[in-house]
Design goal:
- The protein is mostly beta strands.
- Helices cover about 10% and strands about 25% of the residues.
- It is built from one helix and six strands.
- The chain has a two-stranded antiparallel ribbon. A two-stranded antiparallel sheet has the order 3-4.
- The longest helix is centred in the middle third of the chain and has 7 residues.
- The protein is globular.
């Protein structure tokens, strides 16, 4: 997987699970906050593999963005 880019620079996000910065953030959920509207939850590739979190773009249509887990570990 290629690092996320913004304006020609790598985007660094913090993994929700291990709290480490990653240049390969994988959006896996939407965290809903009543007053602020929410934010995207990211996992690093290692934690995404270990937890089996489903990336947001693979969530079923109509999903509310809650964290989903794969039935089997990702390949």
């Amino acid at each position: 997987m290629r690092p996320a880019m913004q304006g020609g620079r790598s985007v660094i996000k913090v993994c929700r699970e291990c709290d480490e910065p990653t240049t390969e953030p994988i959006p896996v959920a939407l965290e809903h906050v009543a007053s602020a509207g929410g934010r995207v939850v990211y996992l690093c590739p290692r934690c995404r593999f270990a937890l089996g979190g489903v990336p947001l773009h693979e969530h079923p249509k109509g999903s509310h963005g809650r964290l989903r887990y794969e039935k089997e570990p990702p390949a």
